[in-house]
Amino acid sequence: MTLVLPGDRIASIEEYEAGRDTFDDGDAVRSLVVGSRDIDPSNRVANIERSKKIGVPDPGDIIVGTVAAVMSVMFAVTIQYVNGKRTKSSVECICSTRNIRKKNVTLVNDVVELRIVSHLNGTIHAAMDDPSLGVILTRCVKCGGSVVPVRDIIKCIECSWIDERKLSRKFGKPDFPVLG
Ligand SMILES: [Zn+2]
């Protein structure tokens, strides 16, 4: 893919209409943004596919990451996978826990699966409002031992401590390689 810059000519207006992220200067269709050419010959429209910031997820994307901080009504996650693809850019998102009634929704260093809901004021917001979303790996808060789910709670197999998390249906069965 050749990168085009704002103002670059991408097609002739005799052949193509100006589509997404382009403009027509009376002679040519030109790009408004940094991206790549996306020509639709059947509809005779010339578009630009915007270059994405690598590793930055869009609303609707499913991410997996490690909990970096837990605050009273939200937690922050360092994103490691976007739609199943590893990212090394260390982008963070936050997830509100306001509507989740659990003793510990999640703990620092837990691995969680979330859905991105929005970008707001430079912050990426995520949610865990689906049975497939939530904590997929965690450990006992008392002894650091392994835990097993018992109905909707978790129990430490080392010290028998009983605790709560907002568990994902995938708890203990992550569908990705162990995170480094
Ligand atoms: Zn324990």
Describe this protein's structure.
The chain is mainly beta. Helices cover 0% and strands 45% of the residues. The protein has 2 domains: 3-50, OB fold (Dihydrolipoamide Acetyltransferase, E2P); 62-163, Nucleic acid-binding proteins (OB fold (Dihydrolipoamide Acetyltransferase, E2P)), CATH 2.40.50. It contains no helices and 17 strands. Strands 8-9-11-13-12 form a 5-stranded mixed β-barrel. It has a 4-stranded mixed beta sheet with strand order 1-6-7-3, with no helix packed on it. The chain has a 3-stranded antiparallel beta sheet with strand order 2-5-4, with no helix packed on it. 28% of the residues are buried. Bound molecules: zinc ion (ZN). The site of zinc ion has 8 residues, from loops. Zinc ion binds at residues 140, 142-143, 145, 156, 158-159, 161.
